[in-house]
Each structure stands twice: as C-alpha cells, then as structure tokens.
Amino acid sequence: MKALVYEGPGQTAWQDVPDPGIKDAADAIVRVDAVTVCGTDLHIVKGDVPEVAPGRILGHEAVGTVVETGGDVRTVRPGDRVLISCISSCGRCRFCREARYGQCRGGGGWVLGHTIDGTQAEFVRVPFADLSVHPLPSSVAGHDALLLADIFPTSYEVGVLNGNVRPGDTVVVVGAGPVGLAAIVTAKLFSPARIVAVDLAAARLAAARSLGAEATVNATEAPEQFVDDLTEGLGADVVMEAVGVPEAFEMCTRMVRPGGRVANIGVHGKPAVLHLEDLWIKDVTITTGLVDTSSTPMLPRMMAAGRLPTSSFITHRFELGQMEEAYDVFSRAGDTGALKVALGGPQHDAVTLAAEQ
Predict the structure, then answer these.
(1) In Å, how far are 153, 215, 230, 303 from 194, measured between CA atoms?
(2) Residue 245 in contact with residue 270, Cβ under 8 Å?
(3) Which tens digit of pLDDT belongs to each residue from 338-355?
C-alpha cells in the first residue's frame, strides 16, 4: 500500500510500505476512505515531537471501512463505516476507567501516527477497536466526520470544558485555525456573552466571524488592549490558547481576568514563560490537556442534528495520492487560506470549495 512516511525533521515521503495486519485480537484493519492533516502533524514534521521516529506513518484522523477484525472485537465488523478516533483506549487501566483515555497506560492514548503507524495511508491497523473506532450515522458525510476525529473533541474538552465556559462569559480564543474555530462553535453551546477571536490571518478571522465570534482582532493590532477596552479593564473570563507558540500562551495569561481561566489547547514544542510574579495574586486557573475523546460518541449525533456547523471548515480537497501537496497547502495556510484539508472520498481536484462554487 501507499502511505506518508516521516523520515526525519523536514522530510516526508508518500511511498510503498507493507500492508498492516492483525497483531492483537483487539485490532481492526480499516481501509482509509477519507483522511486529513492536523497541525500536530506539522509539529511532528518540524521535529517538535521527538518521540516520533523516522519510518513512522503519520496521521491520527480518518474515516474508513472495516475490512478485518481480531477475534476479540465485538462492536464493529467488516463492512462497517467508522470514525477512527485520534485516541485509542485499552479500557482497563486506571485512566481509561476514569474516561481519561488520552492518558491510557495500557498501550493506548495518542498512539496513531505517534508511537505506531497512523492513518495517512491506504489501510491502518487500529488497536483496541471496540473503544477506538465509532460507527457513523449514514446521514453524516465522511469529510464532515473527519472533524470529529480530533479537532472537535479537542476544542470541546481541552478548551471549552477545561475552561469551564459559562453563560454570560467573555471568551477569547487565540488562534483561529481549525481547533480555534471549533472552540468557537462549541463554546457557543454554553451561551457566553461574547467570543473574541485573535489571529494573524484575515481569512481565519473572517471564518471566526462566520462561525459565531462577535469580535475579531488581528494579533498585530494590540489584542490585549482590545480585550481590556471591551471588558472595561477587567479581562476575559476564559482565554483559550490554540496556537502552540510561547508568545500566544503568554498573551493569554495577560488577557485573563482575576479568577479567570486559561485553557491551553495548542501543542507546544518550545518553553513558554509562566509569569508567576504577575499571576500568583490573581487566582488564575491554567489547564493543559491531551484530548480524551470521551465526547466523541456524542458529537456525531450533534452533527447529524445540525448542531455543529462544519461546512466551512474543509477548504481544500485532494485525492489520497496527493498527500504531499495537501501538506504543502495546509502548512502555508496564511497564503492558501487553508483551514482543514480532506483527502480521499469523492474525487476532487485540489481546489478550494469556494473555487468549486
């Protein structure tokens, strides 16, 4: 089969690799019908995630069709259309019993495209299939379902729930990429008074407005002063970091009000300064987290009911064999306007949906 293989910092190749096979009775082999690229994949390619060894097949988000299962698998069978979660769960360890699947100590957690071969391939082996793949309603399109593998559970759990968004809150989302935009959508479910989006790209700020942000501000145009003026000097109740760079995190800690919450969502590859000399007296709560995907079974139902607006997220579609081109487009989002790319499924040229229309 063909797959995208990480060959070291700055180097990937779409190449022939052996087909995956069943290694454990809890495994499933899934034919990848649609797959996407995550900002975390870009961090890996940059060398920010040193645990990923050269030779690893990347990717942790996909929709596919089960083609083979191990003898212990009970919840899916060959022919089933499924969502492959970015997190695998053994279901037995302490953390899985607490529904903190991202911290699984039984061989799961974030393993796909990280410590085992991932989804950016024609076929993928998924461990612990009973808990790690989810049958999809027929009413949910494959490309839309891709958004449920990682970005929506991540934004909802690590951003909105960790940030404890409440009715009437002022919420600031720093970074209007796919995860930041999904944070805006899912924060709206809790009726905040207003959501402010901060980003460098005008196209992403426009997308934020279309998805429910009441105010947007370019990161170069004094966003801290903007939030200060908007809140009469108080600061935001909840600030979410959805970029993964030190400057963005430090900005978030300066925007939050006394007693407020900073929810870090971004994947960081470099140290950030924690200014405790300013924060110790402010009763600020700072949370971090890897997504657990405990919300994943709920999200397809919400999508099927039309409660999660997703049509504007996928801006570019490619055939599966155009993986390297998709990476290039996604990595240059400031130039290409890419939010989320999708590969596979219906045959599409590598053009934006706007161009198709």
Answers:
(1) 22, 8, 10, 23
(2) yes
(3) 999 999 975 333 333 333
